[in-house]
Amino acid sequence: MTSPVRIAVTGAAGSIDYSLLFRIAAGEMFGPDTPVILQLLEITPAMDALEGVAMEIDDCAFPLLEDIVLTDEATKGFDGANLAILVGGMPRQSGMERADLIRANGPIFEGQGKALNEVAADDVRICVVANPCNTNALITMHNAPDIPNERFTAMTRLDENRAKSQLAAKAGVPVRSVSNMGIWGNHSNTMYPDFFNARIDGEPVPQVIDDHDWLKEEFISTVQGRGSAIIEARGSSSAASAANAAIDHARDWFKETPEGDWHAMAVASTGEYGVSEGLIFSFPVRCDGEGNYEVVEGIELNDFAREKIATTEKQLIEEREVVQDLLT
Ligand code: NAX
Fold first, then answer.
1. Rounded to two decimals, what is the model's pTM?
2. Which CATH architecture has domain 5-154?
3. Is residue 187 flagged as an active site residue?
4. Averaged over 185-196, what is the pLDDT?
């Protein structure tokens, strides 16, 4: 047994966390030899509901769970945290424009960035799930100047998983046959799922799936619009699949990416592929097993890809302008 990992999770009484917390406590993120301490942050009106979630967690008697902290104070929730998963936020309400949502959630991430800066562990790593997750991560990063920029990520793993599943279904192969599924840009309906460089059983996808019109149109729009399709079908937004992606994101950040493969993570751009520096932008990344990643270099991008990437970059630049006053 190693020493416990302190995992702070926000929005802990919400839908995604109802699927996420139990899996973390069961050891699915850090494996069967690593005990975990859960530090759960909510807003004050949700503390009773959070107590109920904690009672259920207790009732699972998870052998790896060493402690559980429930709080509505960010400095307590993030105290000594090695990993912070920021899920909590205000959901988009009907009639709300994207810019309104960004403005409504911005101050939450300003405050949480400051709290992380003050009390998190020296090795803290941050994954933002709450939407708009790229820009929320940007705000958090700017308000935590003592934490290195490369520790801030936003989750596009659900988009990677969705894209893999669509390609596998079209090709009639199991999902495990699909690799190198990069997602570029914003976790929004402008994201670019790069099928050109994805592979099925090691072969480039356009060689395996010969319906290129489907790849260029239906595949991309299905992945981009999957969140809305789930809301329409289920009456509420993706929760278990988002929790699953958060497990994948954090687990694979601390695991060596298999030779030749990559995963999607939105990370602080340092200008890779000409993307505006400082944006939290989803790239194909590889992880080294020690909690570090690098953006994969040398991926070939044709005109089709470059145009899509420019569109999603433009949207992120516009989002950054909307929250400029929150970026210290
Ligand atoms: P819920 O509304 O069920 O839960 C959100 C929880 O956050 C609530 O319990 C609320 O009280 C809490 N909260 C609000 N402000 C908070 C604060 N300042 N500190 C701590 N907690 C706070 O939403 P849920 O379905 O769990 O979704 C959570 C977020 O994930 C949303 O922003 C949603 O848009 C986003 N998603 C992101 C995805 C991604 O792939 N990146 C996919 C799924 C999901 O849409």
1. 0.98
2. 3-Layer(aba) Sandwich (3.40)
3. yes
4. 97
